[in-house]
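Morning run. Coffee first, then this:
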Amino acid sequence: MPYEWLPTDPAPPAATAEPGTPAPLARLHLWPYRSLPRKGFVTFIGATCALILVPMLAVLGSPVLWGILPFFALAVAGMWAALSRSYRDGEIVEDLTLTRDSLTLTRHGPRGQRKDWQANPYWVTVHLHGTGGPVPNYLTLKGNGREVELGAFLSEEERVALRDELQTRLAHLR
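And here it is:
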């Protein structure tokens, strides 16, 4: 699953903890699923170059090669640019920190965008909207007068499982 509950230290070292900051009871880290990892990206570009070069072997040594070569380079460069843009747009990370006093959600979006939301965990409710959201089983947290989405990039089943886990952790806290 593209999310994990990170282990929390019961007593963080005094040098790293800010004074008056309660230790987190739970930390959740979410990220979008990547079907093509970086190693696969390099392999895909290499295989594409090799497959495009095979038909070009027939024109090797002729002036036609110089007419086809710019289009080959343009096709590979376009594919490289499109996949790189996809990776940059998919650099989304959501961090949820749960303490006795606050629930904090930080979303690090593409191109350095950052959004923070904080509420009292006692009043936070977890909602799963089956329909009516941008995605099926749209998961939101509601509290402090706002409703924020959580894990819109997760699959439907993962959002349902995450809702159950969040409700359990919030219930234990109350």
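The radius of gyration is 23 Å. Good start to the day.
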